[in-house]
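Two entries, shown back to back:
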Amino acid sequence: MTTRGLSRRQILGIAVGAGGFALSGRFGAAIAEALKRTPGEILGPFYPVIKRLDQGADLTVIPGKPGRAAGEVIHVMGRVLNVEGQPVRGARVELWQANAHGRYTHPSDTNPAPLDPNFEGFAVQTTDAEGRYRFKTIKPGAYPANPNWMRPPHLHFEVTGKVNRLVTQMYFPGESLNDKDLLLQNLRANKDGAIAKVLLPTADVEPASRLVVWDIVLDKG
């Protein structure tokens, strides 16, 4: 069922990007019943070795350095919910990613693409009382997983709630490599749940940036 062409999940996502709204009554209950668990994925070989806990939620700068990360600025935001649509307060949300050239700041990454001296690609946050999280970062580049497989742009997440722990990846809509990605195409049960919604910037962020809205759904929270 959709409302004016938008799925229930998209309605939730747009609400987050616009500042959120209260779900109540029969409509709110219907949305809650429709939520599916965000699909899990592998941790991957580039989970950070060194994690700066003073990074904060802005990955575009490194504390103590004057430069800014190269690439398109994105504001990644959403809510951590359980399958009943209830916010998960106090969930730990870790994000790590490749830089704009498609390379990770990790000793095991042999990709010849350049490192970015102003980008380390890791941050962690705790969700607020409404289950909300928000990071400022750059859109990662695609990179070769092997000679025959290019991975599309994606962000890695590890979410630890009171009951559940989820390792997953978030993808961008409309990427040509999405249809060929082995990991994304393997998510047959809820592939749509791994793809974010990209919105135009609001007045409080950089005019050339984008809002990337993605809710993360745990089983119990």
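entry 2 starts here
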Amino acid sequence: MMHCEPSSNEAIDVRRFAVIGHRAMSKGKLPLNDLAGGAGRMDVLIRAVMSALLTSHGLRDDVEVVLHLQGGPGPHRRLKFVGSELRGFHAEERSVAGLIAKAIREPLPAIGHWVERTPGLYDGGGKLSHTITEWKDSKLIRLDADAERLWKQESTIPIQSTPNEDSIAFLLSDDQPLEMEVGIARSLGTTWLQGHHAIAICHFLLDEGVQLNL
């Protein structure tokens, strides 16, 4: 597959999610029958990708997700899912795992270069700091239970849905803390939620146009 850059989303507002997998394997043969164990909790990342991209009957074309695979072997790896370009993406964990498995079998691209492995799925080197630099056009929110609420105190759920059209990027980690305290720390409540649930709540708030505390 030729080296290429993902198509630019600067002309439209986009929702972005960066998901950090501290133990997620970044290279080799993905054990499809042991995603929770031998793959380094890849199951958690897959559920996050599905929550970010899927609606009940389709794909969100205004969403990008970057998985940060930091469990080795070797350097960190990033996989970028671009909703407007994805093909063959199905609402089934093993199917998504197959896309990831195909990507991480390939040699790791250099930092700053993206290689399209399947339509809408890009493979690249780099860490969270590189993703943040690439997302400089988005408001950056770090989800953290010990922070101010994401919505304004006086906000309500509107009677009529009016989607928030700002370009916003959310950072989520697994059960380990982020290495960088970047962006605006915001909470979805004092209970620590699973990542895919947190993503679904973020989509709901943005879809309905709830006033955000930014």
